[in-house]
């Protein structure tokens, strides 16, 4: 492409990054903490595009250009950029989760829990405490966690969150098995808020043999997809 086409593509790409950074779209690609970098990259690309167009205009004003015309098909390169602006890709879900082994890992330390009353925990937080602290501080407590539904080949239900280190490309699942009063019909990828109690029951992930704890369910209700579908517990 000529310089004008290059500057146009840079401008559209920069606009796409600004659009993603100023909305929740960027959360489909990177963790929340990278928002300033996404916005900065968009600004840099737009400034570069405007500078390229300005220098090209000055060059044409000084001398007549006799270059051949580039094929118009090259402008098709812009279409994926418009797709980025107009179409928000879905977050990784049950298909990826059940084909990837659990990424549960032991934390360097867990925050102190209140001594009494119900607990609302992140799914990865509950799973880590259940496995590596053997449920210390969880036994006999009402616990609420949220995640999306995934079913294994036998139809056994799991509640899952995709844990994020940097971006969606490195997202890995953390899984919690469900037992007890499970709804009779569960839709994969549907989000549930599950309330229950700790149980020492656990199993091994069929993909990588990693530990999967269970929650004894007493109540489960559908909830909307959260603002940020990825779990960034490991980044805190």
From TrEMBL:
Residues 217-236 are annotated as: Disordered. Residues 131-230 form the DUF1980 domain. The lineage of its organism: Bacteria, Bacillati, Actinomycetota, Actinomycetes, Kitasatosporales. Keywords: Membrane, Transmembrane, Transmembrane helix. Signal peptide: none annotated. It holds the Pfam family DUF1980_C. The chain crosses the membrane at residues 33-55, 75-98. This is TIGR03943 family protein. It comes from Streptomyces pseudovenezuelae. InterPro entries: DUF1980, DUF1980_C, UPF0703_membrane_permease.
């Amino acid at each position: 492409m000529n310089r004008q086409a290059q500057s146009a593509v840079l401008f559209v790409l920069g606009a796409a990054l600004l659009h993603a950074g100023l909305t929740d779209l960027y959360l489909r690609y990177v963790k929340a903490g990278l928002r300033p970098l996404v916005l900065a990259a968009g600004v840099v690309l737009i400034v570069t595009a405007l500078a390229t167009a300005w220098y090209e205009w000055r060059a044409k004003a000084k001398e007549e250009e006799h270059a051949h015309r580039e094929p118009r098909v090259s402008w098709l390169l812009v279409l994926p950029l418009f797709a980025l602006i107009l179409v928000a890709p879905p977050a990784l879900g049950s298909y990826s989760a059940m084909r990837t082994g659990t990424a549960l890992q032991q934390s360097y330390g867990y925050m102190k829990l209140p001594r009494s009353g119900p607990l609302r925990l992140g799914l990865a937080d509950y799973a880590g405490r259940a496995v590596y602290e053997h449920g210390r501080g969880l036994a006999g407590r009402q616990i609420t966690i949220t995640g999306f539904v995934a079913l294994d080949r036998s139809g056994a239900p799991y509640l899952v969150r995709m844990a994020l280190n940097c971006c969606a490309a490195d997202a890995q699942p953390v899984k919690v098995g469900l037992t007890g009063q499970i709804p009779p019909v569960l839709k994969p990828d549907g989000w549930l808020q599950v309330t229950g109690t700790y149980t020492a029951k656990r199993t091994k992930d069929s993909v990588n043999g990693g530990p999967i704890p269970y929650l004894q369910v007493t109540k489960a209700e559908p909830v909307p997809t959260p603002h940020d579908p990825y779990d960034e517990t490991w980044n805190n």
